[in-house]
Amino acid sequence: MENMKKTIAIDMDGVIADVEAQFISWYLRDYGIIITREDLQGRNEDNAFPEKGLIRKFARTPGFFLSAPVMEGAVEALKILMEDFEVYIVSAAMEFPLSLSEKLTWLNTHFPFISWKNIIFCGNKNIINTDYMVDDHIKNLDNFKGKTIMFHAFHNVSYNHHTRANNWNEVISLIKQDF
Amino acid sequence: MENMKKTIAIDMDGVIADVEAQFISWYLRDYGIIITREDLQGRNEDNAFPEKGLIRKFARTPGFFLSAPVMEGAVEALKILMEDFEVYIVSAAMEFPLSLSEKLTWLNTHFPFISWKNIIFCGNKNIINTDYMVDDHIKNLDNFKGKTIMFHAFHNVSYNHHTRANNWNEVISLIKQDF
């Protein structure tokens, strides 16, 4: 029966983990400057903050992924999706080796109902084959063969060739109407 | 150009990492008893050694994967495959969380020519989509949609519904003749 369910690949950073909030929070902590979500809109990850490469620096710092807040509505949404879908968490984590164990601990903490069998940490997502993909990165969605939902993030505001969801309620609505 | 290459998913344990040799070596070290490769033939992973669950216990012990020997011929074979294929390392590592960082370090040590972009650690391999898969486990090969090569291991000797390769030379031969 399980194999009859349609499959969906859910990204972590920027989709179920609110790393945007975490970047803003760490930036305030380390630089004493308040950056708002609005300030970030339309920027890319390289120039999001005045200090070049800051996002990659934070992403390489122990504790960053472990203490990231959960995206609003993500827990409830994944429980709903799991009623009808085989849900896989697919994270491009391999670039940041330290993040592997942190991400697994984070998932077990906040999403204990996701089995380890359904977790995938990869480099690129080119060989991931599911019916749906929910992701905030164009590079992942563009290479994907199934149906795509682009989860809103500051770095994707100028792209409109994937169906956009601004939050988890919109993801559920889109999938329910089988867009 | 890169995307035009056919893709191949290569398993780690029992395929490029000689965990069989590692089990035998650790068993001798901890129990003082010599078990040979021949002794293991036809057994499954649960009853491979007199002590039930020993393989899972070893797999959960720090250092097990980090110090596993490289499978004979694997380095040379992967270099050959990379000339014609986009090679992905796909390991079902998620069941043993400690193994994640050890496996990544092991790969970087013994296969430094494999990019982090081409490494995947997963629970099951159900959503992995490549043209070929080289694996020793029936459960991975049976769910796979592309061409399969079953790498010989003690636990798969009684299965014959996948093309068997007894070593890396045979893998290369099979792929070259596009079996």
Task: Walk me through what this model shows.
Two copies of one chain form a homodimer. The first copy, chain A, is of the alpha/beta class. The first copy, chain A, folds into two domains: 2-18 and 69-176, HAD superfamily/HAD-like (Rossmann fold); 19-59, no CATH class. Helix content of chain A is 34%, strand content 16%. Chain A has helices at 19-31, 37-40, 54-59, 74-84, 99-110, 138-142, 168-176, and strands at 6-10, 85-91, 119-122, 132-135, 147-151, 163-165. Chain A has a six-stranded parallel sheet. The longest helix of chain A has 13 residues, at 19-31. Chain A is globular. In chain A, 39% of the residues are buried. The mean pLDDT of chain A is 95. At the A-B interface, helix 5 and strand 3 of A face helix 5 and strand 3 of B.
Short overview:
The first copy, chain A, is an alpha/beta fold.
